[in-house]
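Q: My labmate handed me this sequence with no annotations at all. I'd like to see what the chain might look like in three dimensions before we decide whether it's worth expressing. Could you predict it?
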Amino acid sequence: MIKGAIFDMDGTVLDSMHLWYDIGPRFLAHIGVKTDLDVKTETKNMLFEEMNNYFNSHGITDNMSLEEFTYIANSMVEIGYYDEVQVKPGVVEFIQKLKAKNIPIVLATATDRYLVKAALKRNGISEYFDEIFTCNELQCTKQTTTIYDAANEFLGTPKSETYIFEDTMTPIKTLSTSEYKVVGVYDKWSAKKTDEIKKLVDFYVENLNELDINVL
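A: Here is what I predict for the chain of 216 residues:
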């Protein structure tokens, strides 16, 4: 039985993955820097600190500070979170069902907190989440369970009764060997991996409102 819920944000709660698509090469284009390196592949799953270190170690960004890198990268996506991205269909209805059963809900995201708070507030869903956990604040990626473990500690629920909702392959693969229950959520930016994702999760849905809470 579900006792606690941990939600990813981009691609799971919000239709926002397009903001981060190819962020590495787009960052370089934004600052007018060219390179022959396969930046798209190399930086695909990196946090800002890792990406900045990668660019600096290859002499691409001339020892740019992490603060400057983060400021520029966040500025590229800010308008999306402040003015554009919307909640995915079925999310609000499903979360309301969880709240009706007094199930605590938290967010675990790679997006910086101020962008998270802006998007949640604008979409009127801030009150549904009891806490926000970010990879940058915890200095981790979703290639480990660190962020989920921190969220689970906050929830205080058994891992086997804690459900994690994710849309992309990397975190789902990470979680596939854990005690957590995992729900795969369809997102068009991960569509090519759908068949693989389905093999690794406990449940898979295209719309969260399709999921019957009573079977969790």
